[in-house]
Amino acid sequence: MPLTPDAKGVYPIAPTPFHADGRIDYASIDSMIDFYRSVGSTGMTVLGVMGEAPKLDGAEALEIATRFINRAEGLPVIIGVSAPGFAAMASLTRAVMDKGAAGVMIAPPNTLRTDDQITIYYRQASEAIGTDVPFVIQDFPQTFSVMMTPVVIRKIVQENPSCVMLKHEDWPGLEKISTLRGFQADGSMRPISILCGNGGLFLDFEVERGADGAMTGYAFPDMLCDVVRLQAEGQRDAAHDLFDAHLPLLRYEQQQGALGLAVRKYVMAKRGIIASDAQRKPGASLTAKAKAEVEYLLARLAKHDPRAGRTAR
Amino acid sequence: MPLTPDAKGVYPIAPTPFHADGRIDYASIDSMIDFYRSVGSTGMTVLGVMGEAPKLDGAEALEIATRFINRAEGLPVIIGVSAPGFAAMASLTRAVMDKGAAGVMIAPPNTLRTDDQITIYYRQASEAIGTDVPFVIQDFPQTFSVMMTPVVIRKIVQENPSCVMLKHEDWPGLEKISTLRGFQADGSMRPISILCGNGGLFLDFEVERGADGAMTGYAFPDMLCDVVRLQAEGQRDAAHDLFDAHLPLLRYEQQQGALGLAVRKYVMAKRGIIASDAQRKPGASLTAKAKAEVEYLLARLAKHDPRAGRTAR
Amino acid sequence: MPLTPDAKGVYPIAPTPFHADGRIDYASIDSMIDFYRSVGSTGMTVLGVMGEAPKLDGAEALEIATRFINRAEGLPVIIGVSAPGFAAMASLTRAVMDKGAAGVMIAPPNTLRTDDQITIYYRQASEAIGTDVPFVIQDFPQTFSVMMTPVVIRKIVQENPSCVMLKHEDWPGLEKISTLRGFQADGSMRPISILCGNGGLFLDFEVERGADGAMTGYAFPDMLCDVVRLQAEGQRDAAHDLFDAHLPLLRYEQQQGALGLAVRKYVMAKRGIIASDAQRKPGASLTAKAKAEVEYLLARLAKHDPRAGRTAR
Amino acid sequence: MPLTPDAKGVYPIAPTPFHADGRIDYASIDSMIDFYRSVGSTGMTVLGVMGEAPKLDGAEALEIATRFINRAEGLPVIIGVSAPGFAAMASLTRAVMDKGAAGVMIAPPNTLRTDDQITIYYRQASEAIGTDVPFVIQDFPQTFSVMMTPVVIRKIVQENPSCVMLKHEDWPGLEKISTLRGFQADGSMRPISILCGNGGLFLDFEVERGADGAMTGYAFPDMLCDVVRLQAEGQRDAAHDLFDAHLPLLRYEQQQGALGLAVRKYVMAKRGIIASDAQRKPGASLTAKAKAEVEYLLARLAKHDPRAGRTAR
Question: Which residues does the record give as pyruvate binding sites (chains A, B, C, D) (predicted)?
Answer without folding.
Answer: 215
